[in-house]
Fold this protein.
Amino acid sequence: MPSEPRDKSDSHSETAGQRRSRASGRVTLSDVAEAAGVSSMTVSRALRGERRVAPALVEKVREVAASLGYVPDLAARALASQKSTQVLVLIPMLSNTLFVDVIEAVHKVLFAQGYHMLIGVTHYDPQEEEQLLRAYLPMRPAGLLLTGFDHSEAAQQLLAANPVPRVHLMELREQAMPADNYCVGFSQTAAGAEMTRHLLDQGYRRIAFCGAQLDARVMQRLEGYRTVLKQEGLYEPGLEMLNPERSSLALGARQFEALIRSESAVDAIFFCNDDIAQGALLEAARMGIKVPEQVAIAGFNDLPGSDQMVPPLTTIRTPRDEVGERAANMLLQLLDGKAVKEPCVDLGFRLLPRAST
């Protein structure tokens, strides 16, 4: 017995929203093409805004794509065209205002030029940075923005094997640099030395250094502190309090209390970051220690709230907004194949003397 002819409507019984990639469940380019009644190539050209597609057809295709909730597969597009619009940005922490400011500045520059950020957080761990590079480099990002130069050997090999344009943030490469090593930042060592000189100029002689996280940039500030005190014959290793814990108000309070209760008799403390310095100021108030009469307190980075502390905190203002902006623009030059006249940009820093010293 012959089978009944199939109702043509059955072949189209699936809604557009159901016609999706069986593997991922995503609406595909082919789904948009079928719904719009055009070829997949036409859809691709229309969504890219190519002039060869009539404006009315472009509008129709975009309306259909929007109604289906179609999102372009950027990874597939990059593989097909060998050109990506994604930039991988690796930073130590998202909870640190310093790096949030950098990210904001980078986004503003890149987004205006059609690029988008992939953000990875390393937690100040070179091995974690290596894992992020292994995860993201197969996605073929157009470029990289990396915080500092403290890479593991394996990460350095990955970067060498994947010659993606890259710019380093927040640090300067002190020694001679390879031609493809670009950076935007300031001398952390010079900034540490500048703060130490300020404390000496104010008459303080027993100056302690409190460090947290102990990443490369903190250690460079410490080196600046050591160099100046050694030159003056005032360096005492016992006045250094270094803790690998994450920088925080609570840690600063503990470090301050430990120094005050010790027999070191410090008259000034240089904290490697403003949040631990802020914690120290709060602890000084709880303990009834007068700042700066009994002990001076200084920080680093001029984080929000430092100028509102009691007393206001002496610190180093770092150009994080400008670092992000200049690094992103330098990367855009590299992506456009343009020569970068100044591969290593020193933006400097600014000492902000306030009442805490």
